[in-house]
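FORM 7B: Structural annotation worksheet

SECTION A. Query
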Amino acid sequence: MFDGIGIETIGGILVVIMGGKLTPLNCYAGLAPGSGDGLELVQPIGSLGCEYDVERLRFFIEHLSSPASGSDSPGFNHAGVKYIFPVAPFTAYLGGSFALDSDQNNMGNLMGIVGIETGGDVRLYVEHVRSLTDFDTSYTVSGVKFVF
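SECTION B. Predicted structure
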């Protein structure tokens, strides 16, 4: 059931935890079901990432892959910026990202992002990512992130 959890995943989670604890970054590990034709990943989707807020700008880098599949390397990787709107008790955001080395990406390199999340060390979130070059291609995820 979790063929994709091996030494690379465990190492990635440890790096994320250490990055969140030893630097000013907010780093996270998460799990979410998703839908859409923008990514070729087996459900559910696992996420590892780090973010840094400068006033209302949130800079981030993120890796998405499937814990259920050991054959989706290198997963989906992207980096970008989000403009955050605190709307208690949520944080809404709107932004964009650029795909990095990502064989499972069907959206091209430029993507727009819109989402909403709860705050704290355990965040519930919903996020929609759409290609900015092929408007018919997108994905949506909703799940949980554990922030370190």
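SECTION C. Observations
The chain has a mean pLDDT of 93. The helical segments are 7-22.

SECTION D. Sign-off
Analyst initials: ____
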